[in-house]
Amino acid sequence: MSNIFETLHFYFQYPYVRYAMIVGLLIALCSSLLGVTLVMKRFSFIGDGLSHVAFGAMAVATITGITNNMLIIMPITIISAVLLLRTGHNTKIKGDAAIAMISVGALALGYMLMNLAARSGSGHTTSNVTADVCSTLFGSTSILTLSITDVWICVAMSIVVVSVFLIFYNKIFAVTFDENFAKATGVRSDMYNLLIAVVIAVIIVIAMNFVGSLLISALIIFPALSAMRVFKSFRSVIICSVIISLICAGAGIIISILAGTPVGATIVIADIVVFFTFCLASFVLKRGK
User: Fold this and answer.
1) What's the pLDDT band for 113 if we cut at 50, 70, 90?
2) 2-282 in CATH: which number?
């Protein structure tokens, strides 16, 4: 046990490891706040769809050589969130079909563009493109990749996300549980649905480089599902979801340091373990009644 603490103490002397912990906890906090709303509105896969859109935008930024890829990724992902919401209300294209359409299309387009760039020689070499694809889809294999700029961007975006959630908490609650009743009472539900979609897009862009575009939706969904196994009230589920997400993020980062495993995948596996633990706890509580 002492060797483990000594190893952690050694690694946390490096600023990059501290950066990873800060960013990981902030991403966990933001993703868990709105995860409950998405699960209850049966719109969980919006995170998956938007993460694939972000991958496509990343591919465009890579082959065009734009150094600050946020200039492309952020606006494209937000615009896609708006289009996804609008298309989902179309009677001919339901929400799940719209998500699948945009998700698969963006993923295929992004991978195609990166491979074409590698073949033509206008972008990275084939090996570098393959590494970029793996890193973007599954997150960085090393935690020593974050800069102080990344940390400050994440801090600023997290403050915005948490502030929006706290300011509009009552409206988000109303839209989550009964959108028709919320409309009848004068709540502009379309506007708040749009706000939720935009905030989710921001969270996905923040998290993509850290956990990978294929794993982001797991961070959004699993803590909410775990909390809902045991708690019933909206506020209790939110609080429990945040606590679960923070613990899993911190534990995942620490385990990845000690075991040398990919950060994103380790955090997601920790979330899965907690989910099954809460399922077991829910079963035991029901049997005890």
Assistant:
1) confident
2) 1.10.3470.10
